[in-house]
Design goal:
The protein has helices at about 10-30, 55-60, and strands spanning about 40-45, 60-65, 70-75, 80-85, 90-95, 100-105, 110-115, 130-135, 140-145. The chain is α+β, with helices and mostly antiparallel strands.
């Protein structure tokens, strides 16, 4: 089997999440038109999700919110959206990174998208490439590091 170097599934999810972002941006700017309302299901355990503790205890895996009549402070950026919703007759502001979204559904037009949530990798290991050439006898090794000046500042002779 061929390794999925291009990772089409992730590219497709990223393209489709753009529809969710644009929809939420339009609603943030103009309100919900006509009879539209959104169901959004997201993973509560993904890094960056901010919900009240009582909701996390009640929904440790996923939570579905409805954006319809009682919401405020909807804000959207490239990585997440934030919204104030009422839970148990109290308003709470929640933040949901787009990589946590599992389902976006606009029931009024029967439009639905599903996603595979993923955690963001915080650190990328830096690996210095080992660039070398071995001759046929493997006795002589020429390394690129032999030709690189490290931690040097340009002198007057080095500047063009």
């Amino acid at each position: 089997m061929v390794e999925d170097f291009l990772n089409y599934d992730k590219m497709l999810d990223n393209a489709l999440i753009g529809i969710v972002k644009k929809s939420l941006m339009l609603v943030a700017d103009n309100g919900l038109p006509n009879n539209h309302f959104f169901y959004i299901t997201f993973k509560t355990s993904i890094k960056g999700v901010m919900i009240p503790d009582f909701l996390y205890k009640q929904y440790p895996d996923s939570l579905t919110i409805i954006i319809q009549h009682e919401y405020s402070n909807l804000s959207v950026n490239d990585k997440e959206f934030g919204i104030t919703l009422s839970f148990n007759n109290h308003n709470y502001h929640i933040i949901v990174p787009f990589n946590a979204v599992m389902v976006f559904y606009d029931k009024s037009v029967d439009f639905s998208l599903t996603f595979t949530p993923y955690d963001i990798i915080d650190e990328v290991k830096e690996v210095e490439p080992e660039l070398s050439f071995k001759d046929e006898n493997s006795e002589n090794i020429i390394s690129i590091s032999d030709f690189i000046k490290r931690n040097s500042t340009p002198s007057g002779d080095d500047v063009a």
